[in-house]
Amino acid sequence: MTDNLDAIAHYYAGKLAAHGERAQGVDWNGETSQALRFGQLLKVVDTEAAFSLNDLGCGYGALRDQLSESCPRCDYAGYDIAPEMVAAARNRFAGMPATRFEVAAVPDRIADFTVASGIFNVRLDRTNEAWTRYVETTLEHMDRTSARGFAFNCLTSYSDENRKRPDLYYCDPGTAFDWCRSRYSRNVALLHDYDLYEFTIIVRKSGSGAR
User: Fold this and answer.
1) pLDDT of the residue at 211
2) Which domain of life is it from (predicted)?
3) What is the CATH number of the domain that holds 141?
4) Dihedrals φ, ψ of 113, to 5°?
């Protein structure tokens, strides 16, 4: 899968070069939908308490902007496979306390929580079967590096058939829920009610204290 991750890193570097440090630069439609999906992911944390967070697939650091406003006591680490994204994020947040960015596909620390936004969407020429194995492996890493819980989103298999793209991965929400419920925690939430062609899974580990 390493070669394919290199191709995906190149794909996103191209989006950043074309659109700059904005939602389109990480292949989203706009800032409004980007903020909406961040809000779903952050339901895993208690925004009024101090916590540490791994942001897997951090891009240029858009989630860090949102956390600065809603979660001022967050110890943040962002990870991305595209060096260009990490360079942009480091430049944007140079000198910000409790904030760092690394080129990596797996977090290098155990944090309270880990979130991943959009990292499972673009599979390029990989088969669904191969990409599903990658998703499951990544979820194992997220579980291992999250002490209190984690959250991720996927494009939904319930998307309109005539709008689906062959290079994107559409996941069955029930299957993703079953993965997480059987492997990681009894406390799993499936969010499929926020008017985007995707869903969010929230995994809370026992005693996490999250809302």
Assistant:
1) 45
2) Bacteria
3) 3.40.50.150
4) -135, 155
